[in-house]
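Note to self: the last two entries modelled the partners one at a time, which told us nothing about the interface. This time every component goes in together.
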Amino acid sequence: RKEVEQDPGPFNVPEGATVAFNCTYSNSASQSFFWYRQDCRKEPKLLMSVYSSGNEDGRFTAQLNRASQYISLLIRDSKLSDSATYLCVVNYSGTYKYIFGTGTRLKVLA
Amino acid sequence: DVKVTQSSRYLVKRTGEKVFLECVQDMDHENMFWYRQDPGLGLRLIYFSYDVKMKEKGDIPEGYSVSREKKERFSLILESASTNQTSMYLCASSTTRTGFHFGNGTRLTVT
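The predicted structure of the combined assembly is written out below.
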């Protein structure tokens, strides 16, 4: 089993739709969690950190479920410009080790 | 705003050549990383460094070495490039509590 798993997609959604991705992790010692966005042939860019209490940034909401060992990303009112690959990243407590998921591809259709 | 700069955007090298990939960050971050990214495999850690002159192997260090003589600079070295090292190489920096900030990547082709 991979340490961090994501559904590769693609998720094809119409503009204005709400879409959610999950990312599961296997190591309960994981401490820090992040969502990154990567556009085609570009570097990943930090979208948001994921806090235990959940956090929201505009149309984006990230949540952590430690009991079930997954994090989620919810995008409301999808825009064409949201089309990208979304990577989840998990850091193990007390280490420099960051594990990347292979990403979920989102296509927002006009 | 954090800036991580990789010296080359595209590189084409021949098999057997020694290749240097340079990375510089301007935010005084302790940690620096080199990843490669391949379709279907995601990002895989090659080496990382948590301080000047300190380095640790990642998941796929074979065929690579690194150098960190100054805090802001982390170099990846391919001692003898091979075709299976054709990939996108990404440098990143971070502090212990923040996420990564990536450079814009070097797309290396080894022929």
